[in-house]
């Protein structure tokens, strides 16, 4: 897709035929990959030409245009389009400077910080590459959030749910993950972040990170420095971080499509399967949900996993639409 047409689209200057062409292209499977390349090339251009201060103003303009296009409802577009366009086309536009802000008034030149957010539903996973080449895998029922200041002085991310980070090294711009009460700071490393049900866990697989309780890291005992193979655990309303060892093959199995249990309660296994496959479990009171199970499933269907569990745990099951009914 020609960059000039995308810019015309953002400016509302396309003909109906050009708009239709762009919409058809955005529905194609390989369009996101091409937009991602524009995204990275444009980010590099910002760094080289020192045009970063224009970013927020362009972003504001893009969001206005995307919103108006969405409102027209000419026809249905891929549901991911709005999120993709806001974060990717923006930077492609910036790289080639088709927008003219040279005549802006001081009032128009005010910077507008804009937030980008990506979310996954039950049964979904999402792979992202951030502008600095940091690689993120987002697990089911999770979200990641960063604003238009990302990468200027620091790299600040908010996470809910679970995500795996492969952080691009940059000693001048620390990478900070806010998972709720905990802030994890890294320069270039790989780690897993889990934030669900009042529990936060930071599991380090490579490099070194500092984990601290928000706004209180200067107080002794309220921060931990992790080495590979260590994880920091913090429970809601607690006053300390617990440092312990973990098995990377279990903690990060989800990002490779594997489910691995090692003496895990059946209650927690069902919770994982709900997030993984987007189903709801109906369980009788007579089933002992505290029994522990060990096992591994590699890209298996829900039916195959339930076959194994039902055989070892002595229950029956049936799958009806998005419900799994357990019986004795």
List the helices and strands and how they pair.
Elements: H1 3-10, H2 16-26, H3 31-49, H4 55-72, H5 81-96, E1 115-119, E2 126-129, E3 135-138, E4 143-147, E5 155-166, E6 175-178, E7 182-186, E8 190-196, E9 199-206, E10 209-213, E11 223-226, E12 230-235, E13 242-245, H6 248-251, E14 258-265, H7 266-277, E15 280-282, E16 292-298, H8 302-313, E17 316-320, E18 323-327
Parallel strand pairs: 5-6, 15-18
Antiparallel strand pairs: 1-4, 2-3, 3-5, 4-5, 5-8, 6-7, 7-10, 8-9, 9-12, 10-11, 12-13, 14-16, 17-18
Helix pairs in contact: 3-5, 4-5
- Strand residue percentage: 25-35%
CATH topology of the largest domain: Jelly Rolls
Can you tell me the overall shape?
Answer: globular
Report the end-to-end length measured between terminal Cα atoms: 58 Å
Helix percent reads: 25-40%
Determine the number of helices (DSSP H or I, runs of at least 4 residues): 8
The biggest sheet, with number of strands, parallel, antiparallel or mixed sense and barrel status, is: 13 strands, mixed
Radius of gyration of CA atoms, rounded to a whole number: 23 Å
Kindly name the structural category. Answer: alpha+beta
Number of domains: 3
Low-confidence stretches: 46-55, 68-110
């Amino acid at each position: 897709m020609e960059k000039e047409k995308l810019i015309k689209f953002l400016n509302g200057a396309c003909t109906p035929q050009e708009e239709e062409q762009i919409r058809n292209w955005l529905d194609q499977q390989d369009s996101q990959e091409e937009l991602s390349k524009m995204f990275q090339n444009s980010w590099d251009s910002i760094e080289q030409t020192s045009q970063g201060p224009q970013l927020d103003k362009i972003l504001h303009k893009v969001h206005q245009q995307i919103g108006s296009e969405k409102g027209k409802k000419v026809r249905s577009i891929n549901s991911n389009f709005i999120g993709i366009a806001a974060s990717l086309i923006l930077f492609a536009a910036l790289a080639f400077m088709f927008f003219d802000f040279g005549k802006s008034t001081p009032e128009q030149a005010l910077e507008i910080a804009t937030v980008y957010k990506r979310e996954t539903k039950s049964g979904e996973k999402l792979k992202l590459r951030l502008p600095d080449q940091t690689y993120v895998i987002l697990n089911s029922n999770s979200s990641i959030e960063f604003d238009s200041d990302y990468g200027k002085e620091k790299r600040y991310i908010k996470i809910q749910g679970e995500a795996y980070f492969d952080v691009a090294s940059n000693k001048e711009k620390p990478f900070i993950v806010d998972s709720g009460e905990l802030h994890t700071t890294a320069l270039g490393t790989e780690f897993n972040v889990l934030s669900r049900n009042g529990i936060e866990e930071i599991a380090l697989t490579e490099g070194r990170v500092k984990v601290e309780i928000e706004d209180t890291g200067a107080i002794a005992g309220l921060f931990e420095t992790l080495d590979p193979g260590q994880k920091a655990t913090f429970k809601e309303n607690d006053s300390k971080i617990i440092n312990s060892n973990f098995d990377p093959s279990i903690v990060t199995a989800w990002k490779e499509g594997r489910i691995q249990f090692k003496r895990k309660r059946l209650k927690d296994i069902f919770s994982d399967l709900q997030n993984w496959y987007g189903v709801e479990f109906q369980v009788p009171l007579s089933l002992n949900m505290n029994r522990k199970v060990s096992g591994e499933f590699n890209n298996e269907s829900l039916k195959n996993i339930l076959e194994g569990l039902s055989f070892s745990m002595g229950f029956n099951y049936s799958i009806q639409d998005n419900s799994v009914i357990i019986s004795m």
